[in-house]
């Protein structure tokens, strides 16, 4: 289905809500059957899990600062470039992550979001040297980071 300027505006609304840490406004941008993927969480399905991920990132990413660089409407999707700056609480290190996102829409809402960033570059910032530099590219480190992220998501979504 062709993308409209309304879809690009929805993406801008989404990032404005993220910058304000307004989870309710973010959630209103998502279709109930939305899917999300990125290098760490890989594939998440459904609004509850994806909103759980955003909640977790806001809680664990101290001082989150979001800046939207661009939003471009293509024939079938909207792409966005944005920067997430935060302190990675596990190490206390500052991260400035440049992210490229792709969005697809259904019923005027985001039904697919895929974020991509350079994992090795992220690991150097988040984990520091020598860990991020030496092993930031290895499948073992990626698997460990992914496992920890998913465990954090499961814990945060479990009622106390």
From TrEMBL:
User: Pfam families from the entry?
Assistant: SnoaL_2 (PF12680)
Source taxon at top rank: Bacteria
Which InterPro entries does the annotation name?
NTF2-like_dom_sf, SnoaL-like
SUPFAM superfamilies linked:
NTF2-like
Q: Where is the SnoaL-like domain?
A: 11-112
Protein name as annotated = SnoaL-like domain-containing protein
Q: Which organism was this protein described from?
A: Planomonospora parontospora subsp. parontospora
């Amino acid at each position: 289905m062709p993308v409209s300027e309304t879809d690009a505006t929805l993406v801008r609304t989404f990032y404005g809500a993220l910058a304000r840490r307004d989870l309710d406004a973010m959630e209103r941008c998502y279709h109930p059957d939305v899917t999300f993927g990125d290098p760490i969480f890989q594939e998440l399905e459904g609004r509850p899990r994806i909103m759980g991920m955003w909640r977790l990132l806001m809680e664990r990413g101290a001082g989150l600062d979001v800046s939207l660089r661009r939003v471009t409407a293509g024939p079938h999707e909207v792409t966005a470039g944005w920067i997430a700056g935060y302190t990675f609480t596990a190490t206390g290190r500052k991260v400035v992550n440049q992210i490229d996102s792709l969005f697809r829409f259904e019923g005027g809402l985001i039904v697919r979001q895929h974020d991509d960033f350079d994992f090795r570059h992220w690991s150097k910032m988040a984990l520091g040297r020598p860990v991020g530099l030496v092993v930031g590219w290895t499948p073992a480190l990626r698997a460990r980071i992914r496992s920890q992220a998913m465990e954090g998501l499961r814990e945060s979504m479990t009622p106390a």
